Amino acid sequence: MTRKMLGTAALAALLATSGCVLHVGGDGDYGGDHYNKIERQESRNRAAISRLELGTRFDAVRTQLGEPDFTEAFMAGGTEIRILRYRTHRTHSDGDTTPDETTPLVFRDGALSGIGEAAAMSVRTP
Predict the structure, then answer these.
(1) Are 73 and 81 in contact (CB under 8 A)?
(2) Which residue positions does the secretion signal occupy (predicted)?
(3) DSSP state of 100
(4) Which of 55, 61, 89, 95 is the most exposed place for a label (fewest CB within 10 A)?
């Protein structure tokens, strides 16, 4: 009887742990593959942004860099201002992209007029 009970207990323990998954690696709740993908995208964005020339048309930048992480658009003094933000670096290891992890591209009337935080701030100060 003791042997049977021991066997039953072992089977119960095996069944109780058979659905467990052990996750190792990566930051937060995300695996290493997720962060490798993000890091590759950040690297590609930095390289593409470094090659941009002022005056490049809005559509050409969107074609080259794709969908931005954040977009703003407004009128200032009769000029259309668009700010596209692309992820270029990690600040928080939480898997979410926040504006402070991006590089802004500023467009005035459809042409690239500035890159970086200083350019973005300049269109907000009178």
Answers:
(1) yes
(2) 1-23
(3) G
(4) 55
Separation of alpha carbons 96 and 98, rounded Å: 6
Q: What is the DSSP string of 13-27?
A: HHHHHTT-----SSS
CB 105 within 8 A of CB 113: no
**pLDDT tens digit string along 6-27?**
666 655 554 454 444 434 444 4
Q: At what angle do helices 32-51 and 58-65 cross, to 10 degrees?
A: 150
Domains and CATH numbers, the chain: 26-122 (3.30.1450.10)
